[in-house]
Design brief:
Blueprint lengths: L5 E10 L2 E11 L4 E6 L5 H8 L7 E6 L2 E2 L5 H8 L2 E4 L11 H12 L4 H14 L15 H12 L6 E5 L7 H18 L2 E6 L2 H7 L2 E6 L4 E6 L1 H6 L4 H7 L8
Parallel strand pairs: 3-8, 3-9, 6-7, 7-8
Antiparallel strand pairs: 1-2, 1-4, 4-5, 9-10
Helix pairs in contact: 3-4, 3-5, 4-5, 6-7
């Protein structure tokens, strides 16, 4: 069996000594679409923050591409995290910069490529996400869906092995959200990268059809794992079943 590209072992995570997640373990295989799902306050974004090195765990190990993130020194951590691109929920684009300048920023920061090469790479990433011709616009001139696409393009700038997307469909209308899901599927097929996606949008979960872990606020951990159709049809896990069938079931 292929070695996992992400391995989380007995992770406890939280803030100010208060755990939000307790003793969770899971792994992610190279090239898969892996979805972190759950209700508000269950620790989805906290978990993602730990995976991308923004937060230190209270206990446990995180291994990225065979290298342990949790005990790495600063230079080792930077090397490990170079394999990860992140698109945050709000896009986090710099409003005073053009779209091209936003995508070029990681290349300018972390490579010594000439400006012409950086511009070419940034333009090619924009074409990949369907934003060819938008290079000289500023973020305020883009729709919400286009801003999400630009954020994904910037996350891809350094050709990472792993792309982490935090609530990519948040704030989008259903049609735009569906188009973004199709983009993710296309990028997965074309690039072969591993996607880790935080979401609570069931429509996206079923479209992307990736392996899911479902977090729960009360349990402070993982209460279900599997593919969407499996979890939707598994009556043995009542809480997960109700979540996946919430349009049909009465919410508690």
């Amino acid at each position: 069996m292929t070695e996992p590209i992400i391995k989380v072992e007995h992770l406890t995570a939280g803030f100010d000594g208060t755990p939000i997640l307790k003793d969770i373990s899971f792994s992610v295989q190279p090239g898969e679409i892996f979805i972190i799902l759950g209700g508000s306050g269950c620790g989805k974004s906290t978990l993602l923050g730990h995976l991308v090195g923004l937060q230190e765990p209270m206990e446990g190990r995180i291994v990225i591409n065979g290298q342990e993130l949790t005990c790495a020194d600063e230079s080792q951590k930077q090397a490990i995290l170079s394999d990860i691109g992140v698109a945050f929920q709000g896009g986090a684009l710099f409003g005073s910069m053009t779209v091209l300048e936003n995508i070029a920023l990681p290349l300018e920061e972390f490579t010594s490529l000439p400006k012409a090469a950086i511009r070419w790479i940034a333009s090619s990433k924009l074409r990949l996400v369907g934003l060819g011709g938008c290079e000289d616009l500023v973020p305020a001139q883009l729709s919400g869906g286009m801003q999400k696409r630009a954020a994904i393009a910037r996350a891809m700038a350094l050709d990472p092995k792993i792309l982490c997307l935090d609530e990519p469909s948040a704030g989008l209308d259903p049609i735009t959200a569906a188009q973004l899901d199709e983009l993710i599927l296309n990028l997965s097929e074309i690039l072969g990268v591993t996607f880790v996606i935080v979401t609570h949008e069931l429509a996206s979960v079923f479209t992307l059809n990736g392996r899911v872990i479902m977090l729960d606020k009360e349990a402070k951990g993982i209460i279900a794992e599997g593919y969407p159709d499996e979890l939707k049809n598994d009556r043995s896990n009542e809480k997960a079943w109700r979540f996946f069938n919430r349009s049909l079931a009465t919410t508690s």
